[in-house]
Design brief:
Helices cover about 35% and strands about 30% of the residues. The mean pLDDT is about 85. With about 130 residues, the chain is of the alpha/beta class.
Amino acid sequence: LQQQTVQTGAYASTEVLQVLRDNVALNPPREGEAVPTVTRLDWCCPLDACLRHNFDTVCGADVIYVPELVEPFFRIVADLLAPGGRVVLANGTVRYSQKRHLVERAVAKAALRIGSEYEVKRTTVTILEAAG
């Protein structure tokens, strides 16, 4: 699968995207690896066909904060994942624990399952996999 870096989030600012582009430029791919790209992804809009089921790994940080966006986020993540893909999320433990019930419901609706979860310095790291 083609390797890409995607900045997810309905509220991603131009500044955040530029910082991510700069970071990608500072870490060029090795010979033979795909060149990562950075793009804005609105969780509430349908995915372009070229993005659907195209990613082995989706990573996100501090993505669980607005209750109304929890379900759209996991729906988009499930659509991005290739068969056998995984999701790695890092969220502040306090905020994440307050919305845990929303996460569990949204994960189940998106046909994902929590594979493992652990806490590192007030951050909850969650590994999700496609259910089934």
